[in-house]
Amino acid sequence: MRLSFVGFAWRNVWRRRLRTALTLCGIGMGIGAFVALVGFSRSFEHAWLEMYENAGTDLAVVQKTFLNTSVDQSIAPVLQRIPQIAIAAPMIINMMAVTPEVNTLVYGWQANTFEFSALNILEGRRFRDGQQEVMLGELLAGSLNKKVGDTIDLQGGSFTVVGIFRSGSALEAGAIIMPLDQMQSLSGMSGKVTAFHVQLKPAPSGVSPDQWRQQAEDAVSSALPGLRAVPAAERAANNQLVILAHAAAWGTSLIALLVAALGIANTMAMSVFERTKEIGVLRAMGWSRRRVMTLILLEAAALGVAGGVVGVALGWGALHILGMLPQTASIVSSTLPLRTLLDGLIMAILVGVAAGSIPAWRGAQLSPVEALRHE
Amino acid sequence: MSDPTTTPRSEYLLEARDLKKSYENGAIEALRGVSLGIVAGDFLAITGPSGSGKSTLLHLLGGLDLATEGTVLFRGQPVGKSQNGVAAIDIDTYRARWAGFIFQSFHLLPALNALENVQVPMLGTGSHRRDREERARALLVELGLEPRLRQYPNQLSAGERQRVAIARSLVNNPAVLLADEPTGNLDSVNSAKILELLAQIQERHGTTLIMVTHDLNIAATAHRHVAMRDGRICD
Predict the structure, then answer these.
(1) Are residues A221 and A120 in the same domain?
(2) A57 within domain boundaries
(3) Could you report the per-residue pLDDT of A80-111, keeping only the tens digit for each?
(4) Are residues A151 and A122 in the same domain?
C-alpha cells in the first residue's frame, strides 16, 4: 500500500485494533441512537405530511392554543362561506388501545369526507355515519388478524369491521377510521372536533397558489377569532405529537453523542500520550505544529467516519425493527431517509473532530526535544 | 579548528553566537555561551562527557529547540527568532528544508516499512507521492537496502534500522546533517560501517555533517572536532 497522509492517519488509528474497535462500538451506539431516534421522529413527521398530501388537504383549521386543540363542529357553515374554501371536513384524531399491548391512531371522519380519496379499499366497504362500524388499515388488520365482519372492542364499545384499506401513509396504514359521531361519543367530544381539514378552490388566474392560500388563512383568522388555518406541511411539522417526538429524539441522541465524543476524546488522548515520542520525531523531521494537529484531527475524524458507518447500520437496523413491531409499525416507516443518513455521518465527523481537537492541540504543542525524551 | 571570530561570517553555513540554554528558570545551565562557526561541507565532531551540553548544542544548531539567549544563524539568517530587525527563518521550515537528523535510537515509526519511513519528512511538506517514493527508493538502494524496502523496523537489524534513519535524514536533501551518537546503539562492526557510510555521504553529497559522540576514536574520523565541558567549548 502506498503511503499517503490520510493512509498514515488511518494506520495510526488501526494500530491499536482492540481499542479502536471498542471506540467504534461506542461511536456506533451514539450515532445509531441518533439515526434511529431522529429517523423515527422524521419518519413520523413525513407520515403526517404524506397523509395530508395524499388526501389533497391544503389547510388544517385548528385552535390557536398549542395543546389538545378542540374546535366546535358548528363552525362548519362559517368555513364553507369563505370564498377560497371548497370543502371543510371535520375530523378527530386520537390514540386508543386495541389490545393491552397495541395502541393505535384512531380517526373520526364523516362518511362523505374527501379524505377517503387517498385510501384504496381492499375488502368490504366504507362505513356509514351513525353506525358502530370501523375500517382498518391493512397493516393493523394483519397484526390483529382481523377481517371484514369481525368485531373489535374500543373503549368498551364493540365495532364491526366493515372494510380493510390500503394507504400510502404509515399513519393510516396502521390506523382505525370510524364515523365521526361514534368517535365523538367514544372520546367524550360531543359537538367538538380536533380540526377541520380544508381543500381550497383552484386559485383564480392572476393569483398564485401561495397568495390564494394566504388569503384563505387570513379569511379564517378574521371570520373565526381564536382559530387559525395552517398549511398542511406546517401542520405535519408542528403538530404537538411531532414536536414532542423531535424533542425526545434529539435530547436522547445528544446524550448518546456526548458519550460517544468522550470515548473518542479518551482514545485520542491515550493515543497522543503513547505516541509522544513519534510526534517528536515528526516535529524533528520538520512537520509543523499545524501538520501534526491536522494528522491527529484526521485520525479522530477517521474514527468518527468509521463509527458513523457502524452507527448508520445500527440505526437503520433499529428503524427496520421499529417498522415491524406492532406497537410502532403504525407510526414509523422502516426506510432510512437520505437526510438522516447524511446527518448521522456528518454528526459522526463533527463529534470526532470536536473530541479530537484538544488532544490534537496538545500533541501539536509538544516541543520536539521534550517529545523525543518522552519515555 | 575554525574560529568564528577570525573567519569571515559570510563563509559560515551555520553559526552559533553566544548560545545559552537554561532550564527550570535558570537553575540548570546546559549551555553557558557557546560560539561556533561551521562552513559548508564541514564534518564536525562534538565530544564531551555526559552533561557537557553537546546534545543541547546539536539540538539548537538543528532547530529542535530555541536558545535561552544567543542566536543560531543559517547562511547569515537567524533561525527561529528574528534578531536586530533581520527576519528569522521559520524553525519548522528550517528543520524540514535544511536540517536532517540521525538519532542514537533510530526513532523509526513502527507502523511504517523502510520505504515509508524514509518518506515521512517529505510527507510533512506535502510532496507529490511519486516524487516521495522515487527519492526514498533511490536513497535506500544507495545505502544497500534494496532487498529490505518493505520490511518494518522490527524486521530489520540495528545496523539496517540506522541506515534507514540515515536515508530518512537525507530525503529532503538537507544542507546540514546532525547526528546524535549515531553509533551508540550499534556493535563495533556496524558502527564502523555506519561511520564509513556517513563519511561517504558527506563526501558524495557535499552535506555538512555535525556529529555528537563521546567516543574520541569516532570523533577522529571527522575533519575537526570541538570538545565540550560544563556547557562550554573547552578547546
Answers:
(1) yes
(2) no
(3) 999 999 999 999 988 888 888 778 889 999 99
(4) yes
Residues of chain B positioned with their CB less than 8 A from the CB of A8: 112, 123
E strand or H helix that includes residue A123: strand A120-124
Most A CBs within 10 Å: which of B56, B93, B105, B120, as the mutation test of the A interface? B120
Higher pLDDT among residues B113 and B185, named by residue: B113
C-alpha cell recorded at residue A135:
375500517
What does the pLDDT read at residue A327?
Answer: 64
Q: Are residues A221 and A365 in the same domain?
A: no
Q: Is residue A165 part of a domain?
A: yes
Nearest CA in chain B to A288: B92
Polymer length in residues for chain A: 375
Beta-carbon pairs below 8 A across chains A and B: 74
Distance from CA of A44 to the nearest CA of B (A): 48
Residue A141 or residue B85, greater confidence: A141
Nearest-angstrom CA–CA distance, A165 and A155: 22
Span A113-122, average pLDDT: 91
Q: How far is CA B83 from the centre of its chain?
A: 24
Across chain B, mean pLDDT equals: 89
Interatomic CA distance for residues A295 and A317, integer angstroms = 33
Domain end (from A164, A197, A225)? A225
Q: Which of A195, A225, A255 is the last residue of a domain?
A: A225
For residue B4, pLDDT beyond 70:
no
Mean pLDDT computed over A111-129: 93
Report the distance separating Cα A50 and Cα A34, nearest Å: 23
Mark whether A208 and A290 lie in a shared domain. Answer: no
* For residue A155, pLDDT beyond 60: yes
Is B13 within 8 Å of B206 (Cβ atoms)?
no
Q: Tell me the whole-structure pTM to 2 decimals.
A: 0.74
Q: Tell me the nearest-neighbour CA distance from B86 into chain A, angstroms.
A: 22
Write down the ipTM of this complex.
0.89
Question: Quick check: B121 and A286 CB within 8 A?
Answer: yes
What value does the mean pLDDT take over residues A9-30? Answer: 89
Q: What is the pLDDT of residue B55?
A: 92
CB atoms under 10 Å from CB of A52, counted, come to 22
Nearest residue on chain A to B57, alpha-carbon basis:
A369
Any chain A CB within 8 A of the CB of B159?
no
| CA–CA distances in Å: residue A86 to residues A56, A57, A243, A337, B130 | 12, 11, 30, 34, 71
Cell matching residue B34: 557557546
Highest mean pLDDT among A163-172, A259-268, B63-72: B63-72
**B229 has which bridge partners?**
B232
Site of grid cell 497522509: A5
Contact B65, B55 (CB under 8 A): no
- Cβ–Cβ gap B64/A282 under 8 Å: no
Partners of A302 on chain B (C-beta within 8 Å) are none
Q: Considering its fold, how many domains does chain A have in total?
A: 2
Same domain for A34 and A117: no
Substitution target in B55, B109, B119 with the highest count of A β-carbons within 10 Å is B109
B116 interface with A at CB cutoff 8 Å: yes
Q: In this structure, is residue A145 part of a structural domain? A: yes
In the structure, what pLDDT confidence band is assigned to residue A173 with cuts at 50, 70 and 90?
Answer: confident
* Whether the predicted pLDDT of B233 surpasses 50: yes
Are B180 and B214 spatial neighbours (Cβ–Cβ below 8 Å)? no
